Each structure stands twice: as C-alpha cells, then as structure tokens.
Amino acid sequence: MSLDAHHPIIAIQSIELTSITPALKVPFHPELLLDIARKYGTPTYVYNQSVIQNRIRTLRSHLEGLPLDLYYAMKANHAVPVMQTILAEGLGIDAVSPAELLFALEIGFAPENILFSANNMTDEEMHFARSKGVTLNVGSLSRLKKLGQAYPGSEVCVRINPQVGAGHHEHVITAGSKSKFGIPVEQMDEVHALVKAYNLKIKGLHQHIGSGILDTDTLWKAISVMLEVSMGFDNLSFINVGGGLGVPYRPDERGIDMDQFESKIVQPLSACLRSHPSSNLKIWFEPGRFFTAESGILLATVNTLKQTPHRTFAGMDSGMNHLIRPAMYDAYHEVVNLSNPSGERIPYDLVGNICESSDFFAKNRPIQELSEGDVVAVLDTGAYGLSMATTYNMRSLPAEVWIDEALQVSVIRKRKSAEDIVREALDSD
Hints:
Layout: E1 9-11, H1 30-40, E2 44-48, H2 49-62, E3 68-73, H3 80-88, E4 92-95, H4 98-107, E5 114-116, H5 123-132, E6 135-138, H6 141-150, E7 155-161, E8 183-184, H7 188-198, E9 201-206, H8 216-230, E10 238-240, H9 258-274, E11 282-285, H10 289-292, E12 296-307, E13 312-316, H11 325-329, E14 335-337, E15 345-351, E16 360-368, E17 375-379, E18 399-403, E19 408-413, H12 418-426
Parallel strand pairs: 2-18, 3-4, 3-11, 4-5, 5-6, 6-7, 7-8, 7-9, 9-10, 10-11, 13-15
Antiparallel strand pairs: 1-19, 2-12, 12-13, 12-17, 14-17, 15-16, 18-19
C-alpha cells in the first residue's frame, strides 16, 4: 500500500478514543487507525502525543518531593514532534552521538540541558561536545584522563557501573561484571586520582543499569551503591539514576507499581539527600521507553497466508527492518487484527518480508482470524521501533504519522519509493 501524499492532515471530529481490546492500552480508535492505513498506506508508525504527555506527567507527579530534573533518552524515539513534546514538557536530553546532540540543539534544547553520553567516546566527539557547551558523561578512566589532559579544570559527569544490572533481556543489561558501560565502583580511587591530577570538577554522577525494569528492589540496590559513591565527592550538582523503567508489553503484565515506586525509591532517596554533603543536589531520571513506548503502534498489512503441515504463516508488508526487537531480544508485542477485532483467535506465525529466518513479530500467537488484506496493529512500538530501523534488503523505512493533543493527524515522515532508495544508493555526492 502506498503513501498518499495528498492527505497531509485528517481532521477528527467528535471521535471517542476507546480501546480495540483490553490489550490495546493506548487511546487509539480502531476506525481511526484503519482510516490512517487507507489514506497513508502501510507499513506506518502512528504516535499519540497525549500518551507521551500523560506518561511524563504521571512520573513527575510520583517524584514530587525530590529536587528533580527529568531527562529523555532520545535514542528511544527522536521523531520531531516527539522531541518537541519533550521540550514543551520541560525535560532535558540524554544524547549518545554527535548527530543526536546536534538534533537536540536544532529542536531547541539548551546546551546546559543536554547530557552527552557517547559510549567509547572518540577524541573528535569529546572536542565536538565541548565546543557545543553540553555536559560530557564519561564512562572510562581512559576518557577521563584524556579529558583532563585536553581540558584541565573542566566540569564533567562520570558514569559509574554499580555492579548491579537489570533488564528484560541480557542484551539490554547495562551494568554488572560483564557490562562495557561505566567505570566500575571498584575503580573510584583511580577516578579521584585523575580528578586531583587534572583539577577536574565532578558535577554529576550517572548510572544506567538496564532497560525494561519493572522491579523497584533491583533499581534501589543500584541507587544505594551510587549514593554511597557520591558521598566521596564534594559539590555535586546532580545524581543521575538513569532510566530503564519498563512498560507492560504482555496483556498479563503489570507496569511499575507507582505507589511502591514512591515508597521504595522516592522516599528513601529523599531521606538520603537530607544528610548528603553536597547541598542543592538534584536527582535526575532519564527514561526513554517509559515515556514513548505505549504512544506508538506499527500498522502493517497481511499480504500472504501460508498453511504448511506444521504452521500457519501470516506474511506482512513490514519486517524486522522496521521492528527489530522481537528478533534481537525475543521481545513480545501484542498484535491486534484491526480488520477483524472480534474474530476467533487462531495461532499464527506472524512474519515479515525480509530474507532472514529471524524475521518475525510473533510465533504461534493466537490472533483474531486473519485474511489477506487485513490491517494489523503491533502495539507498544513507540520506543526502539523506527529509531532502530534500517533499510536492509533495500526496503523503505515506514511512514510516520502523528496524532496531536487536538486530535489532528499529520504525516511526519513519508515512505520512500524503490526509485528513491536506488537513487540515493547511486548518488556519490
């Protein structure tokens, strides 16, 4: 299905935003999604601004009482209106590459509200970030030394590895004995030695232990380590406890219990700050997935039904090049047949159009009975969907559609044609 460029905006009049099924947790009306698929084609990502705003405001309300700054890990989703919404809500940005940094500046984020957390930072990246006036977040002794040599007396944030990791899959655990991220807590003496040698000013400490965390106990264990480490630094401006807060992808999963989050994270943090040697110390949280995952849906069309002696395959016009999470992490995403939402559930292997055996969305998953031409919604794809997408097999990226808080629908990224992709590949300029 092709993108119709003649429909830049759909005006939605008096539509009640209800759920397709109890599994569809975000406010998307099925007829609206089908209308988007008809007008703009598939595959298409659809994002809902109101969901992002709600998630930000919900977290902020449960962090009241802390001297707080919220940051957004833009690697989750850097679509322009997503970033503009984040800016309007008063958040800062965690950027991990020069392009992310430049993009955040272009959107309008102030340099002082950008943390540059490039992994295995190069000399060029270090100089570039310094020239833009952002805060560097350094995760190795080697880089801390190079920063000190190049910019003695400068301010810097240090990422530590609290040796506590967590996440929904081993590939997203970003702390612990096997992790490449951060300076291990056992090496804090060496950090202090470099600070003294180059007169560095440690303005902040940072950790990020993993992604998709629903367990507050593990998070608090890591925060406790960080608080202990922080006692050895004078005049800290902030402690960044990271992001990684998970969302419930499966119908039977529950999200983070926010009351428990307050009692097990917020209240102990607040108590510790009262006796901390650094005055005016702020706590930073930097979620990505928590803010955007539930705001997004990937629309795709079933174009092939294949019955074999062992499986029933439903082939779609999207693939792992558009949503890599199931193939990379064995991640679960609920799938709803928008064209037949009350149909009998039949087990399918929902697969894509990429030449890889790992190209799947769901395996042996009961889905409302599918027919060729049906439009399906892959839920909770607003984080680490398009931001991890590729043009593998020389297939186009999906279109992107935005539903703003006034219920206006607009195309924010058009789908490229095969001719566009070939032209770009042949262009040597």
